[in-house]
């Protein structure tokens, strides 16, 4: 049986440029059950994002918006937008590791 990922529970997972120095990612969850998983601080927190994107944990900001079933995550870009080594000028591909984050164990029970 294939793993369930955040993308499976979301209507949309996207990332975008939030100015030349920040990346923002948004999880638009399909329903309240999916939102409970995405908003669960024991599952998705600053440490997880820091490890996933190799950024400092203290720079990660997570905003949980229960009325919209949305989780928004922001962190500084590793390189300024448009700099010589910037390979994703609009931060349009940053969401892929987040979307692929597997839902395991107790989080799956929240969904069912």
TrEMBL record:
<feature type="domain" description="DUF4387">
    <location>
        <begin position="6"/>
        <end position="100"/>
    </location>
</feature>
<protein>
    <recommendedName>
        <fullName>DUF4387 domain-containing protein</fullName>
    </recommendedName>
</protein>
<dbReference type="Pfam" id="PF14330">
    <property type="entry name" value="DUF4387"/>
</dbReference>
<dbReference type="InterPro" id="IPR025496">
    <property type="entry name" value="DUF4387"/>
</dbReference>
